[in-house]
Amino acid sequence: MTYIIAVANQKGGVGKTTTSINLAASLAATKRRVLLVDLDAQGNATMGVGVDKSAVKLTARDVLLEKAKPADVILHLPEIGISLMPANGDMTEAEIKLRDVAVGDFALKAALAEVADQFDYILLDCPPALSKLTVNALVAADGVLIPMQCEYYALEGLTALMDTIGKIKRVINPKLEVEGLLRTMFDPRNNLANDVSAQLLEHFKEKVYRTIIPRNVRLAEAPSHGLSVMAYDAQSSGAKAYLALAGEVLRRHDGGQLRLSA
Ligand code: ADP
Ligand code: MG
């Protein structure tokens, strides 16, 4: 069974792309077959795994606008152990054109159905907006992973995101669940961060991942080398945290067994 996770938060800079790349790589390290789908016109996930976004001929845009088959767009990245559906600035066109298509919310779901049996996990790195592309991700997904920075305004945007998730669940995608809230870039010396973290636990209880992603410079450096943090510095606190997060995700979805043979 393929499990599709949308990594979403309409705020920029909260760690969506960092989480998408490193959770994908961590799941791959436990022998799961993983597809990372870059849905952001900025192409940060694409560049972050070492693919030159300006050099790719086919992207998620071509898949969403039915100009190409997913299998022809997906790249296989043996050094990171994952597959990638890349994106670049062309995604802006998909965002606009999908607004004019009657079934424009279903384009990603339809495309992923063609390749789903080749993957155990599909991670969707969403753009920083509650846009048509994010709606496509929420329609295609089984679960939503919401990265958040524990700061003063963090909870504000959460209401709008939860409303959108609720609406899509009621109207289009009844199986959609909030998979979890992930505390990112966490600095335990920061009192406000601790307060916001406590509030999150109080309101969302078991929906908050026990794993906390610390602020760690290795996580910020790795993408400039086109590497996951595990490949860049396996001993870093960032690498350990994302492996722990993968463990939590696996425990929730497939009993957490480590597969020793592919
Ligand atoms: P988003 O995709 O939500 O916009 P990113 O994952 O691109 O957010 O993260 C924003 C910036 O913060 C990037 O420069 C990234 O390298 C950095 N960053 C993300 N997570 C961490 C972390 N835990 N520690 C340090 N830097 C981080
Ligand atoms: Mg991003």
UniProtKB/TrEMBL annotation:
InterPro entries: AAA_dom (IPR025669), DNA_Partitioning_ATPase (IPR050678), P-loop_NTPase (IPR027417). Residues 4-178 form the AAA domain. It comes from the Bacteria. This is Chromosome partitioning protein. It comes from Stenotrophobium rhamnosiphilum. It holds the Pfam family AAA_31. To B.subtilis soj. SUPFAM superfamilies: P-loop containing nucleoside triphosphate hydrolases.
